[in-house]
Amino acid sequence: MKYIYDGIYEWDGKSKNGKKPFCWWPGVYRIRIVNFTSNGPEILYLKSTVVICRNAGTGTSIKNCVQNFAKTISEEFNLEIEKALWVEIDKNDPSDIQVANLSPLKHALGGKTLFAAKWRPAMPNEINLIKPFLKDFHLPIIKNLKKNKI
Q1: 12 Cβ neighbours under 8 A, 6+ residues apart
Q2: Which ranges in the chain belong to alpha helices (H)?
Q3: How far is the C-alpha of 50 from the C-alpha of 87, rounded, in Å?
């Protein structure tokens, strides 16, 4: 397992270079992206990557725009949306762990795949999978982490 990214992800909700933002409202999230494929070819995962997110307390929630957020993160970090487990830890209650099911829609718009999103509580096996990566996943250490600003 290796970390692809571990830090603060911030956006301002403004268009840049003629490109629309994934969300029109600013926000700041603590994000950890873990790749499981480095465990070796003998272990196959249905979801080879986990993206763990937690609202840092400012701005909008990605629950409102997870499809667009997932596309942006996937493009930036070279992930496959459907092979990633998208997880949000509640900012007020760390025991509230939600998973976004992102399902591709049959119709593409302008050659781009659209996704439907549904949030659900994390299942026990998913919690066990991500538990080792939550030990130091606290909001107070945000100051010490690298920032990615888009």
Answers
A1: 21, 26, 149, 150
A2: 66-77, 124-130
A3: 7
Report the DSSP beta bridge partners of residue 31: 7, 53
**pTM, two decimal places:** 0.82
Tell me the two tokens of residue 102: 């992102």
In angstroms, rounded to a whole number, what is the distance separating the alpha carbons of residues 137 and 53? 9
Residue type (1 letter), 22: F
Provide the residue ranges of all domains of the chain, joining segments of one domain with +: 2-143
Integer Cα distance of 95 and 15 in angstroms: 35
Task: Specify the length of the chain in residues.
Answer: 150
For residue 15, the model assigns a pLDDT of 72
Six token digits for residue 46: 């249905």
